[in-house]
Amino acid sequence: MNLKQLVGIESAKYVLDGMVVGLGTGSTAYFMVEEIGRRVNEEGLDIIGVTTSKTTEEHAKKLGIPLKSIDEVTHVDITIDGADEISTDFHGIKGGGAALLFEKIVATYSKEVIWIVDETKLVDKLGKFPLPVEVIPYGSQQLFKKFEEKDLNPKIRLSSDGKPLLTDSKNYIIDLYLEKIENPTELANWLDHRVGVVEHGLFLDITTCVIVSSETDGVKTINVSR
Ligand code: 5RP
Fold first, then answer.
1. What pLDDT is stored for residue 1 in this prediction?
2. Closest C-alpha among 143, 137, 121 to residue 203
3. Are 139 and 171 in contact (CB under 8 A)?
4. Structure pTM?
5. Residues 74, 174 within the same domain
6. In which residues is substrate bound (predicted)?
7. Inside any domain, residue 226
8. Which is the most buried residue in 43, 83, 91, 198, by most CB within 10 A?
């Protein structure tokens, strides 16, 4: 079993009958969705899933996991998702898979948020992984210039056809190549106040539990007190 599969399967143990479950996106979350699907089919696990991307929606549908949209549920009990980086103070960067907007919305309405990662995602400070910023296409060149002026090293994310990649909401992603983010809260606030920025990949004070897998130590669960 690979490291992503290990944490994916481990995290599915936190899902109980009757729960509304946020289903994350990415190659690690894939294994969690698979395992939840298996439990639904083989154990009769009774849950409602809320997906965070079209990709996860298609996957969950194929497995027969009952789904509702975030607007059709009264609450979300638990969300399980991957992450691109997690700092020692348990802030994170997400959005490598361009699903940060729905991921942040679903996480925001969740009582518990579990991140599942392999040990390579744990860092002292965030920023080595380019920070994704979702922007609406209109005015995006102006925003791009603002990011350049602030030395944020922006690059528009392209899809395989060389055109700007479109998110599920038909927005663009501008990745910021920062190397190190000294003050994530300050940067998040600055981005929050830029007109045209829909959302950014700084997930601060959101996770309540991190499940990490490593070659040497196997699977470790870290509860984060908030
Ligand atoms: C998608 C995400 C993913 O959760 C993140 O990129 C981690 O993905 P992976 O498990 O494939 O490394 O934020 O927008």
1. 86
2. 121
3. no
4. 0.97
5. no
6. 25-28, 81-84, 94-97, 121
7. no
8. 83
Distance 83 CA to ligand 1 centre (A): 5
* Cα 166 to the center of its chain, rounded Å: 17
Domain that holds residue 136: 131-200
Residue 220 in any domain: the answer is: no
Q: Is residue 222 part of a domain?
A: no
How far is residue 203's CA from residue 212's CA, in Å, rounded to a whole number?
18
* Residue 223 belongs to some domain of the structure: no
Does the Cβ of 55 fall within 6 Å of ligand 1?
A: no
35 residue type, one letter: E
Say how far residue 212 (Cα) sits from the centre of its chain.
15
97 lies in the same domain as 44: yes
* pLDDT 10s digits, 163-178: 999 999 999 999 999 9
Q: What is the pLDDT of residues 84-135, one digit of tens each?
A: 999 999 999 999 999 999 999 999 999 999 999 999 999 999 999 999 999 9
- Please work out whether the CB of residue 32 comes within 6 Å of at least one atom of ligand 1: no
Mean of the pLDDT values across residues 147-163? 98
Supply 124's token pair. Answer: 């002292």
